[in-house]
Amino acid sequence: MKIPFSLTVNGKPVSTEIEPRALLVEFLRGPLQLTGTHVGCDTAQCGACTVLVDGKPMKSCNMLAIQAQGANVTTIEGLAQGDALHPMQAAFRKHHGLQCGFCTPGMVLSAVGLAGQVKQPSEAQIREALDGNFCRCTGYHNIVKAVQEGLADMTA
Amino acid sequence: MQPFAYSEPTTLAKATGAAAANADSRYLAGGQSLIAAMKLGLSAPAELVDLARLPELRGIKVEGNGAALTVGAMTPHAEVAASMEVGARIAALAALAGGIGDRQVRNRGTLGGSLANDDPAADYPAAVLGLAATVNTNKRQIAADDFFKGLFETALAPGELIMSVTFPVPKKAAYRKFRNPASRFALVGVFVAQTAQGPRVAVTGAGSRGVFRVKSMEQALARDWSAKALESILVPASELQSDLHASAEYRAHLVGVLAQRAVAEA
Question: Which of A27, B104, B136, B163 is the most buried if burial means most Cβ atoms within 10 Å?
Answer without folding.
Answer: B104
